[in-house]
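Final report, section 2: Outcomes. Of the targets proposed, HD family phosphohydrolase is the one most frequently requested by collaborating groups, and we therefore present its record in full.
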Amino acid sequence: MKDLSATKLIALVGMCDGKEQYLAHLLANRMDVEIYSIKKFYSHLFEATLYPDLCFLDMSEDVSRSFMLLGSLKTLNIPTICILPSGIGLALELRCLSGGAYDVMYWPESKSEILKKTDFIFHNTIFEQLVFDKHVNREKHVSDKDNIDTLMHQILSSLSVSIDAKDSYTQGHSLRVALYSTILGKECGLDDESLTLLHYSALMHDIGKIGMPDAVLRKPGKLSDEERKIIQTHPTIGYDILKTITLMPDMSLVARFHHERWDGTGYPDGLDGVDIPLYARIVSIADAFDAMTSERSYRKPLTFEEAGKEILACKGTQFDPQLVEISSDIIQRYISNGKVLTFDDVLSTTA
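The predicted structure is given below as tokens.
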């Protein structure tokens, strides 16, 4: 296992337009930095006895070779931040995340955000266990992995039922959010492994409510300002509960960020736009959709069509505009077919 106290090594790969000088100058006083072309870095990977701790990979030039390299970095379990051109759109971000990127960054990016993304990887348990987790997983047989996946799903499903049981009006909520999230994720083009991670993360998105007082969760009427502040702590509580599960870091991130808003007015951290992790953006829409289409003590449930219109009305303010368009297409398709979403859809989605 790598010495986690050693000076960190960062590789800047395939950079153009002066990005390598900018990043090297910014990062060099904090860690060791090496600059490579894609071709040179391939050679380095085959010959190296010590891999970099983090790779910044520029996706704006040779896209095809960049994705081939990203696949190799994923196999070697080297955390990678893909640098994308500003305004490129959701498709390339999805492809990078599905292809193994730990995070994406749109260029140009502020110094503070670059350092924040770098520090998040280096200073969290998630990163510190990546190498160890890789070696553990490599030793497992396929049959063992299948059994572990089944056991994981059963445990998380049971736990989600326990979470929802704290409030009679939200029973089944986490399971439905996982269902809607998985369907939306598939429509976005996520691969099977990513869909599984998204499904598990959605099941656990409200785990922080375990720490909420029953009187607040079950209050039949409108919450007071003080009670609302209490409820708004559940994302950070959830994050603290899940952050030690290093095999699935997305679970803790979804728990923390699923109430962030596209326009930056959400909580707990006020993130905006693509700084909100993709899975959290997906779960945010699924969470709101289920809340609107479920009965509450103070109102009747909305129809799918009514909820779809509400989601569309929040495009670009509460929700990711591109994800809203995709979710609206899904909702309209189910409405036009006269179909109700069931758990069979999850099975067909993840099959």
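The first strand starts at residue 9 and ends at 13.
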